[in-house]
Design goal:
InterPro entries: FA_desaturase_dom, Fatty_acid_desaturase. Keywords: Membrane, Transmembrane, Transmembrane helix. One of its GO terms (cellular component) is membrane. It holds the Pfam family FA_desaturase. With about 375 residues, this protein is mainly alpha-helical. It has one domain. The protein is built from 15 helices and four strands. It has helices at about 5, 15-30, 40-65, 65-95, 100-110, 120-130, 165-170, 175-195, 200-230, 235-260, 280-285, 295-300, 305-310, 320-335, 345-360; strands spanning about 10, 275, 290, 340. The strands form two sheets. It has a two-stranded parallel sheet. Helix 2 (about 15-30) runs antiparallel to helix 14, helix 3 (about 40-65) packs antiparallel against helix 4 (about 65-95) and helix 10 (about 235-260) packs across helix 15. The chain is globular. The protein starts with a helix and ends in a 10-residue tail after the last helix. Residues about 365-369 have low confidence and may be disordered.
């Protein structure tokens, strides 16, 4: 039996928080005659982000611009990868972009624009992260990575004392690691753990599909420019690495600011495999919003600065989070729950750096919950 099957949320004190909140949120959509899915502006944003990814690459191939212009174009592509991942792919793979499953399926494949596979992402994110948020050894987002310690329950190494300084370099190589290794490592791990319950034939098809997608991805970025458009390999390699560093840095920082900050909890199950909390209460205690009034940031990060609303209602398109946030906050306060938020991006970033420092101190109490 896999670890994921053993862990359960069993509330000692029953609460009507989530049923009450769900009723109020459903009432908001009914009374305002709104769909919980994407609207016309969301479709426009999708087109803009995809264009910001495709058109700069076309310009690089067609015009072979100088180093400074090329650098800018590669950075725009990196920012676009992040934007697509946070705003389009993320909603689609949660089933929140459209009421039509086929639309969500195909837009979910935009993860391939980062050279990554969709199935592993769904298991890592939709199942492990959303179910077991900040639970050590289950939530892949805080898993021990050797040089990075993102949970108080992992062993402290001497190098962790400096992780607040070098963390952002490793954040920057995340998507590159995803392209080259992570999908294959997760593929094996999820089968071994029992999370991936597909048949051998289905897994063979999945593995073949991952390999084909990655070969096509690398072929488009390296073979096409160098052999067809005669662009020097070093120029393409430099731009490719720059694009991925920008994408990885943005993606990782945004996700870390929601959970790996001061004030969040890191509960462990008891010996019977039970976390003695209501699941919705657990989400409130492990998740923090940031920059709630920054409309430009909200637009770009796909509402992931409203992470509380996303974790409670992942099947609602992110464009609605600013509207339902006051409902969530008011209901949480009525039930005596803390609604955590940082008012600015900088405050949230400082809090993340502070927790990196704290987790890297050898004498830090590892019994924290």
């Amino acid at each position: 039996m896999s670890t994921e099957k053993k862990i359960k949320f069993v509330a000692i004190d029953k609460t009507l928080f989530f049923p009450t909140l769900k009723k109020r949120v459903e009432q908001y959509f009914t009374e305002n005659h709104k769909s919980r899915y994407a609207d016309g502006m969301m479709v426009l944003k999708t087109i803009i982000l995809l264009a910001c990814y495709v058109l700069p690459f076309v310009a690089i191939l067609a015009f072979t611009p100088g180093v400074w212009v090329s650098t800018l174009l590669w950075l725009v592509m990196g920012a676009a990868i992040s934007g697509i991942g946070m705003s389009v792919m993320h909603d689609a793979n949660h089933g929140a972009f459209s009421r039509r499953p086929a639309v969500n399926k195909w837009l979910g494949f935009t993860i391939c624009l980062a050279g990554a596979g969709v199935s592993n992402w769904k298991w890592q994110h939709n199942v492990l992260h959303h179910t077991y948020t900040n639970v050590a050894n289950l939530d892949e987002d805080i898993k021990d990575r050797g040089v990075m310690k993102l949970s108080p329950h992992e062993a402290v190494k001497s190098i962790h004392r400096f992780q607040w300084m070098y963390a952002f370099f490793f954040y920057g190589i995340l998507t590159l690691y995803w392209v080259l290794l992570k999908d294959f490592i997760q593929y094996a791990h999820f089968i071994k753990s029992g999370l991936n319950r597909q048949t051998k034939r289905e897994n063979l098809q999945m593995l073949t599909g991952m390999i084909v997608i990655k070969l096509l991805y690398l072929g488009i970025f390296f073979v096409l420019p160098t052999l067809v458009f005669q662009i020097p390999f070093n120029a393409i390699l430099t731009g490719f690495l720059l694009m991925h560093f920008a994408a990885g840095l943005v993606l990782t920082v945004i996700f870390q600011l929601a959970h790996s900050v001061e004030g969040t909890q890191y509960p462990l199950p008891n010996p019977e495999g039970i976390i003695e909390k209501d699941w919705a209460v657990h989400q409130m205690e492990t998740t923090v919003n940031f920059s709630p009034r920054n409309k430009w940031l909200s637009w770009y990060v796909g509402g992931l600065n409203f992470q509380i609303e996303h974790h409670l209602f992942p099947k609602i398109c992110h464009i609605h989070y600013p509207a339902i946030a006051p409902i969530v906050k008011k209901t949480a306060q009525e039930f005596g729950l803390k609604y955590m938020e940082h008012q600015t991006f900088i405050i949230a970033l400082r809090s993340h750096i502070a927790i990196l420092k704290k987790f890297g101190i050898p004498r830090f109490n590892e019994g924290i919950v």
